[in-house]
Design goal:
By secondary structure, this protein is of the alpha+beta class. It has 2 domains: 53 residues, no CATH class; 87 residues, Alpha-Beta Plaits, CATH 3.30.70. It is 42% helix and 26% strand. The protein has a 5-stranded mixed β-sheet with strand order 4-1-3-2-5. Strand 2 and strand 3 form a beta hairpin. About 18% of the residues have low confidence.
């Protein structure tokens, strides 16, 4: 049974309460950003929405970038790229001279951010990127720290 079949089954048996879930399943299958319509705004559906968002195709990567990466607009460029890709997380200068960042979102965007870190902005010189996989925590937005 494919996703579209499951979505139709949900629509038939649960009517309006699950209509948004059926639409979400189809959106996810087609690679579209999930659009969540909470019909009958009920706390249990909102809770399910949060759980679905954090478990469906979400990935979290923690990177440490070494080289000439501070004072070259690395953090600003990183934030701009992450926001353009719809990736959540944060970036900051580490006390040891590296840049540290966390990227969370759908796999293609997170992987694109790791690739971007290997190059950095024009004036950076990246020597190495250490990559750690972590469980998603539900980051929202992308922020720059000092």
């Amino acid at each position: 049974m494919g996703i579209r079949d499951r979505a139709e089954l949900i629509r038939r048996h649960h009517r309006e309460d699950a209509e948004w879930l059926a639409d979400l399943l189809i959106d996810l299958e087609e690679g579209e950003p999930a659009r969540l319509r909470l019909v009958g705004a009920c706390g249990r559906w909102a809770s399910l929405t949060v759980r679905l968002r954090h478990t469906v195709a979400m990935r979290r990567i923690h990177v440490f970038v070494a080289g000439r990466v501070q004072g070259v607009f690395f953090r600003a460029g990183c934030a701009e790229q992450a926001r353009a890709l719809g990736v959540a997380g944060w970036v900051r200068n580490a006390p040891d001279g590296r840049v540290e960042a966390v990227f969370e979102g759908r796999e293609p965007g997170v992987e694109a951010m790791v690739r971007w870190c290997r190059e950095g902005p024009p004036h950076a010189h990246v020597d190495s990127v250490d990559v750690l996989e972590e469980p998603p925590e539900g980051e929202e937005g992308f922020r720059v720290s000092r």
